[in-house]
Amino acid sequence: MDESEGDVLSVEDIDLLHVPTEATYKVSRLADYSGITFFSLGPLYVALNISFNILETFAVDTGIGAFERHTLYFSHPIIAGLGDWSFILEGIPDAVAATLFQYLDTQTVLIRHSSIYSTFMRRDVAIADPYGVDRKDLLPGEDPTRIVVYVPSTNHCRVDLMDPPPGPPPISLRVQQWPPVLEVVTEGNAALNKRLEI
User: CA 67 to CA 27: how far, in whole Å?
Assistant: First the structure.
Protein backbone atom coordinates (compact mmCIF):
# COMPACT_ATOMS: atom_id res chain seq x y z
CA MET A 1 0.00 0.00 0.00
CA ASP A 2 2.75 2.46 -0.91
CA GLU A 3 0.98 4.43 -3.63
CA SER A 4 -2.56 5.36 -4.51
CA GLU A 5 -1.87 5.60 -8.23
CA GLY A 6 -0.44 3.25 -10.79
CA ASP A 7 -1.40 -0.39 -11.16
CA VAL A 8 -4.40 -1.40 -9.10
CA LEU A 9 -3.99 -4.59 -7.13
CA SER A 10 -6.55 -7.21 -8.11
CA VAL A 11 -8.43 -8.49 -5.09
CA GLU A 12 -11.05 -10.62 -6.86
CA ASP A 13 -9.77 -13.74 -5.10
CA ILE A 14 -10.15 -12.26 -1.63
CA ASP A 15 -13.20 -13.58 0.17
CA LEU A 16 -14.31 -11.06 2.77
CA LEU A 17 -17.39 -12.27 4.59
CA HIS A 18 -19.97 -9.48 4.77
CA VAL A 19 -22.52 -10.22 7.47
CA PRO A 20 -25.94 -8.54 7.31
CA THR A 21 -26.09 -6.96 10.74
CA GLU A 22 -29.69 -7.23 11.86
CA ALA A 23 -30.12 -10.69 10.33
CA THR A 24 -27.52 -12.30 12.57
CA TYR A 25 -27.39 -10.03 15.63
CA LYS A 26 -30.27 -8.75 17.73
CA VAL A 27 -28.66 -5.59 19.01
CA SER A 28 -29.69 -2.55 20.97
CA ARG A 29 -26.15 -1.30 21.57
CA LEU A 30 -22.81 -1.58 19.78
CA ALA A 31 -21.48 -3.54 22.77
CA ASP A 32 -23.96 -6.32 21.93
CA TYR A 33 -21.58 -7.42 19.16
CA SER A 34 -19.48 -9.75 21.27
CA GLY A 35 -15.84 -9.99 20.18
CA ILE A 36 -16.14 -7.31 17.47
CA THR A 37 -14.03 -4.14 17.30
CA PHE A 38 -15.59 -1.15 15.54
CA PHE A 39 -13.62 1.50 13.71
CA SER A 40 -13.70 4.18 11.03
CA LEU A 41 -11.23 4.61 8.19
CA GLY A 42 -13.36 7.44 6.77
CA PRO A 43 -10.85 10.24 7.43
CA LEU A 44 -8.21 8.33 5.44
CA TYR A 45 -10.49 7.74 2.45
CA VAL A 46 -11.76 11.33 2.35
CA ALA A 47 -8.64 13.35 3.21
CA LEU A 48 -6.31 11.28 0.99
CA ASN A 49 -8.88 10.52 -1.73
CA ILE A 50 -8.01 6.83 -1.48
CA SER A 51 -9.63 4.79 -4.24
CA PHE A 52 -8.52 1.30 -3.20
CA ASN A 53 -10.18 -0.79 -0.48
CA ILE A 54 -7.94 -0.67 2.58
CA LEU A 55 -9.37 -3.84 4.16
CA GLU A 56 -8.98 -5.83 0.96
CA THR A 57 -5.40 -4.58 0.56
CA PHE A 58 -4.73 -5.60 4.18
CA ALA A 59 -6.12 -9.08 3.48
CA VAL A 60 -3.88 -9.48 0.42
CA ASP A 61 -0.75 -8.06 2.05
CA THR A 62 -1.04 -10.15 5.21
CA GLY A 63 -2.52 -13.33 3.70
CA ILE A 64 -5.00 -13.36 6.58
CA GLY A 65 -7.75 -14.99 4.52
CA ALA A 66 -11.50 -14.51 4.90
CA PHE A 67 -12.83 -12.78 7.99
CA GLU A 68 -16.16 -11.64 9.34
CA ARG A 69 -16.91 -8.02 8.52
CA HIS A 70 -19.77 -5.76 9.58
CA THR A 71 -20.54 -2.46 7.86
CA LEU A 72 -23.02 -0.41 9.87
CA TYR A 73 -24.85 2.65 8.53
CA PHE A 74 -26.35 5.10 11.02
CA SER A 75 -28.80 7.94 10.46
CA HIS A 76 -26.64 10.48 12.31
CA PRO A 77 -22.97 11.28 11.59
CA ILE A 78 -20.40 9.40 13.64
CA ILE A 79 -17.70 11.75 12.29
CA ALA A 80 -19.06 14.96 10.79
CA GLY A 81 -17.83 16.31 7.47
CA LEU A 82 -16.86 13.07 5.70
CA GLY A 83 -19.77 12.73 3.29
CA ASP A 84 -21.10 9.16 3.19
CA TRP A 85 -18.21 8.03 5.40
CA SER A 86 -19.63 10.17 8.22
CA PHE A 87 -22.37 7.60 8.84
CA ILE A 88 -20.36 4.35 8.60
CA LEU A 89 -18.68 2.18 11.19
CA GLU A 90 -16.95 -1.06 10.26
CA GLY A 91 -16.45 -3.99 12.58
CA ILE A 92 -14.25 -7.07 12.49
CA PRO A 93 -13.31 -9.72 15.08
CA ASP A 94 -11.04 -8.48 17.87
CA ALA A 95 -8.08 -10.67 16.84
CA VAL A 96 -8.28 -9.52 13.21
CA ALA A 97 -8.64 -5.91 14.36
CA ALA A 98 -5.43 -6.18 16.41
CA THR A 99 -3.58 -7.40 13.29
CA LEU A 100 -5.20 -4.71 11.12
CA PHE A 101 -4.19 -1.95 13.53
CA GLN A 102 -0.60 -3.21 13.70
CA TYR A 103 -0.59 -3.21 9.89
CA LEU A 104 -2.05 0.30 9.52
CA ASP A 105 0.32 1.71 12.14
CA THR A 106 3.24 0.88 9.83
CA GLN A 107 1.76 1.91 6.47
CA THR A 108 2.48 5.00 4.39
CA VAL A 109 0.88 6.36 1.25
CA LEU A 110 2.75 8.33 -1.40
CA ILE A 111 0.60 10.21 -3.93
CA ARG A 112 3.03 11.36 -6.59
CA HIS A 113 0.84 13.70 -8.65
CA SER A 114 0.07 15.86 -5.60
CA SER A 115 3.37 15.24 -3.73
CA ILE A 116 1.51 13.98 -0.68
CA TYR A 117 3.13 11.57 1.72
CA SER A 118 1.05 10.29 4.65
CA THR A 119 1.26 8.08 7.68
CA PHE A 120 -1.79 6.85 9.56
CA MET A 121 -2.52 7.78 13.19
CA ARG A 122 -4.75 5.67 15.43
CA ARG A 123 -7.22 7.31 17.79
CA ASP A 124 -9.15 5.38 20.45
CA VAL A 125 -12.20 7.48 21.27
CA ALA A 126 -15.43 7.37 23.27
CA ILE A 127 -18.77 8.26 21.71
CA ALA A 128 -22.41 7.99 22.68
CA ASP A 129 -23.68 4.61 21.54
CA PRO A 130 -24.83 5.16 17.93
CA TYR A 131 -27.74 2.71 18.20
CA GLY A 132 -29.00 4.60 21.24
CA VAL A 133 -28.64 7.89 19.40
CA ASP A 134 -30.49 6.62 16.31
CA ARG A 135 -33.27 5.08 18.41
CA LYS A 136 -33.40 8.02 20.83
CA ASP A 137 -33.23 5.69 23.83
CA LEU A 138 -29.93 6.70 25.43
CA LEU A 139 -30.11 6.64 29.21
CA PRO A 140 -28.59 9.40 31.37
CA GLY A 141 -25.13 8.34 32.49
CA GLU A 142 -24.99 5.41 30.06
CA ASP A 143 -21.46 4.15 29.46
CA PRO A 144 -19.88 5.45 26.25
CA THR A 145 -18.90 3.19 23.37
CA ARG A 146 -15.25 3.00 22.37
CA ILE A 147 -14.26 2.96 18.72
CA VAL A 148 -11.00 3.36 16.80
CA VAL A 149 -10.60 6.10 14.20
CA TYR A 150 -7.66 6.36 11.80
CA VAL A 151 -6.64 9.83 10.64
CA PRO A 152 -3.92 10.88 8.18
CA SER A 153 -0.77 12.76 9.07
CA THR A 154 0.68 14.13 5.84
CA ASN A 155 3.66 16.25 4.84
CA HIS A 156 1.16 19.08 4.13
CA CYS A 157 -1.09 18.90 7.19
CA ARG A 158 -2.36 16.67 9.94
CA VAL A 159 -6.07 15.84 9.94
CA ASP A 160 -7.07 14.93 13.47
CA LEU A 161 -10.09 14.65 15.72
CA MET A 162 -11.08 17.69 17.71
CA ASP A 163 -11.28 17.28 21.47
CA PRO A 164 -14.95 16.94 22.44
CA PRO A 165 -16.39 19.41 24.96
CA PRO A 166 -16.56 18.35 28.61
CA GLY A 167 -19.62 16.39 29.63
CA PRO A 168 -21.31 13.31 28.24
CA PRO A 169 -19.68 11.45 25.34
CA PRO A 170 -20.19 13.17 21.99
CA ILE A 171 -22.82 12.02 19.54
CA SER A 172 -20.63 13.07 16.60
CA LEU A 173 -16.88 13.54 16.33
CA ARG A 174 -15.33 16.33 14.27
CA VAL A 175 -12.07 16.56 12.35
CA GLN A 176 -9.85 19.57 11.87
CA GLN A 177 -6.66 20.34 9.96
CA TRP A 178 -3.51 21.06 11.96
CA PRO A 179 0.06 21.94 10.91
CA PRO A 180 2.09 18.92 9.75
CA VAL A 181 4.34 16.94 12.07
CA LEU A 182 8.01 17.73 11.32
CA GLU A 183 9.00 14.05 11.27
CA VAL A 184 6.36 13.29 8.62
CA VAL A 185 7.51 16.28 6.53
CA THR A 186 11.09 14.97 6.67
CA GLU A 187 10.03 11.42 5.77
CA GLY A 188 7.84 12.73 2.95
CA ASN A 189 10.63 14.85 1.45
CA ALA A 190 12.97 11.86 1.53
CA ALA A 191 10.35 9.58 -0.09
CA LEU A 192 9.56 12.13 -2.80
CA ASN A 193 13.23 12.80 -3.52
CA LYS A 194 13.88 9.05 -3.75
CA ARG A 195 11.09 8.74 -6.32
CA LEU A 196 12.60 11.56 -8.37
CA GLU A 197 15.97 9.79 -8.44
CA ILE A 198 14.56 6.60 -10.00
Answer: 21
